[in-house]
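so i finally got all the pieces together for this one. its two components total, 996 residues if u count the protein bits. some of the lines might not be protein, just check the labels. i wanna see the whole assembly predicted at once instead of chain by chain like last time, that was a mess tbh
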Amino acid sequence: MSGEVQTIRSPGDRGVWAWITTVDHKRIGLLYAVSAAAFFFIGGLEALLVRTQLFGPNLEVLSAEAYNQLFTMHGLTMVFLVVMPVAAAFTNYFLPILIGARDVAFPRLNAFSYWLFLFSGLLIYSSFVLGGAPDGAWVGYAPLSTQLTEVVRMDFWTIGLSTLGVSSIAASANFIATVFTMRAPGMTMLRMPVFAWMSLVVAFLLIFSLPSVAIGLFQLFLDRNFGALFYAADAGGDPLLWQHLFWIFGHPEVYVLILPAMGIVSEVLPTFSRKPLFGYPFVVFSGAAIGFIGFGVWSHHMFTSGMGPIAEAGFGVATMIIAVPTGVKIFNWIGTIWGGKIKFNTPMLFSLAFVAMFVIGGLSGVTHAVVPSDTQQHDTYYVVAHFHYVLFGGAVFGYVSGVYYWFPKWTGRKLNEVLGKVHFWLALIGFNLTFGPMHILGLNGMPRRTYRYPEGLGWANWNAVATIGAYTILVAFLIFAWNIVRTHFLAKGERVGNDPWDGRTLEWTIPSPPPVHNFDETPIVHSLDDFWHQKYAENEEGRAVRIPAVTGGAGDDVDWPGAEPGTPEGIHMPSPSYYPALSSLGIAITGAGLIYLPWGFAAIGVGVVVMIWGLFGWSLEPVTKEH
Amino acid sequence: MRVAPVMLLLAACSGSGPQTALEPQGPIGRDIDGLWDLVLMLATFVFVLVMALLVWAMWRYRERPGDESEPKQLHGSSVIEIGGVVFSVVLLAFISVPTVRGLLDIREVPEGDDVLQIQVTGHQWWWEFEYINETGPGGSTLITANELHIPEDVTVYLSMTSADVIHSFWIPALNGKRDVVPGRVTNLSLIADDPTPPGEPIPGQCAEFCGLAHADMRIKVHVHTAADYATWVDEQLAPSAQPAPETPLDAGWQTFSTLCTACHQVTLEDVEGEVTTHGPELHIMSDDIEFRSSFGPNLTHLFSRDTFGSGTFTLDADHLSQWIDNPESLKPMMPDRNDLANGKVLGMPDLGLNPTEIEEVVDLLETWR
């Protein structure tokens, strides 16, 4: 196989229009990635403003009004517009390739999911210029979120989250169908890479959890706009109903954010240790177990709400139980590098840091299961510290590891290792400076979501440290951004072939970047880590032994997919279509109209027409074009 | 007195302030802290163990230059998996027993005649306290705001609800937090060991995000000896004095009784010795919850407090003048969204008083101690 990069593109594949109409899972993955990166910098900027305001006691950098909008939007952005779409980016790009497929099951539905996500994000962000952003925290507890109906800020949140949910459900259905129907011959469920498994678990989590919050959001919308009384206590409604509906979604959501990162780490650690993943079935099933148990622990977010001691005891113990499969994963990751030959490349550094930081976040999570102790920690900076250790030190480090790991596959160029290591150490130090002290702040009584704090409570020094840490993180991620620009856009990165890391899974068998159809010939899979076993055998000691290079040919017993140049002619790929983007635009316009009732009925009319136009065009579109 | 700077220095070094949960000042707080210490110890043990394994493996199995050998392809070990699960389960079982026991303890409803019952109402953005067992002449109860006064070594049982959105009552040194939910009554027990020095109450604050001025919804707990507490109760139950007509303070009263009593209650004794409560009627919040709620803090003994604006500002004439002149310059509020007819108050409005009127009102308030 020559190192030459091959892509097959028809002339219509260039320009903005090609990106709008694309149904290629790889392009949609990149669209998700770029959008999420943009939202990541916006959400990070919001966090920096918040941290600047908290640098010292009683500062006046931000008004309370601005502060409440910024911390709400930071949380909402990072959860729904950054981590979820980043996970969607990796899943889109790599799930089909990892299971040996040429695309997802429903390519146009995939495009629809992306455009609806983007339009929902833009709709929510348009609130900043339309009188103010949502300011009721990302959890939007009723009746605070239903209190000021004259101000439409929280309607942006209600509608935006609802349409994002539609996008996620469509994407999840698509990924489930892809895994169940598109696997290459021989790719049994227990030969799937862990990342593919975790994507599947996440898709199920979303399908089952989103309806709960959808109902809640619908009721909130009715409360706010039509005088319904679901959450109005003085009329017999129940504010706690919202908390239950929200957290039945919200807790599985936490695993939605972290499991794909765990999947990435489970790919990176074996590759850079030159050993298989330790206890593959245990890692897979513990991931599934986390998914199941994750539906039974939602009320640990409500230990102070007054549920009664029996419910609190039950949810406390259930929460401890979920630590068991999580612990299993940690043991297996350590088992994976144990006895290996560890290369400390940047992806490996971030994955190792993921394990270390996740241990801290996991252990502080166990302290929340201790209910009496949690009544002190709940809604303080201790909790802020805990979930950032899980979602930043955990999820974000995992996804960054994935970026360094798979960047060569996306672009054909490796990110710079020196810049990568500077990025890594600054991010690790900055992260711990920012969120480590928050444990202490919380235990010393500092509640979260407070726009100022007085002197004399002993909080000033640690807050100053946290703010310095936050700026360190900014520097780290600017270096990351520069590394990406330099490597890809300035084309200064080292060019690589198909398999720069001596990888284990199918994506390394195909060119970097992959052709539109991924595989010239559908691969036939014989084992877990199939590609590795094409390259290496085991001697009697169990050590890996390189199989002499095989030149493909008829009768050769090594089925190294892509080892022989295939014939890309005659492969049918789905045609580009603008209808998915059009119908999601219709939904976004409808959403915007719902925010501004009753004047918005006009926009709703337009939006519904556009959506139906899009859906009609979509279903009647002939599939004729061929690559 | 010489001890104070040393204590301050110690507090600064340890980094914990008076609102810390780690230096409890009562038995309930201590129980929770004991549980925290146990869990922290176990978590530290697990953390050190896992980090040691991780770092050792990273060091021991790093790629060395010149080493061409390939590692053994170990695929897993059921013994280690089962061992890991058993290890986690045992450790968690060790935590879960004291967790459930501690939980049942802190949720226990205290019984007996010596339990001090206080009703707490959370408002945007202040706290109202009604001492339902402390009744004065005519059956009036003791109502105060933001500064809770309790006797030492007595179980105080709070029954709490909210007049608007969800709040959370939290005094870290005495107990964990408890949400204050509209339409429901939640409870919390407080027991304090020792009287607090004057001017150094135990601080706490609202812990559930409740809108604009959530950060400025603080609580101060003053702990007294039994005798001092009784004195405080008597003082609070007594009416303050209504200025006689044509006296210097009467000018302030004329302003106060036309504007301020739209929201604030005061119980005053006039020159003829007649005791009247001015201001809006207290309203019952809902059919199920017989809490009485005010629109604004009761001001009968305003200057017996150290702070105002829900424990946010030192109470003195300067601060108070600024507050009356332009409340939003001190604390963010939304008074333009007040809807008194429906019991909705989102802040103190700027009443447009001129400096003379403000001075007169403040002079009057200063006499209500």
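Chain B has a mean pLDDT of 92.
The domain at 116-225 of chain B is CATH 2.60.40.420 (Immunoglobulin-like).
anyway lmk what u think
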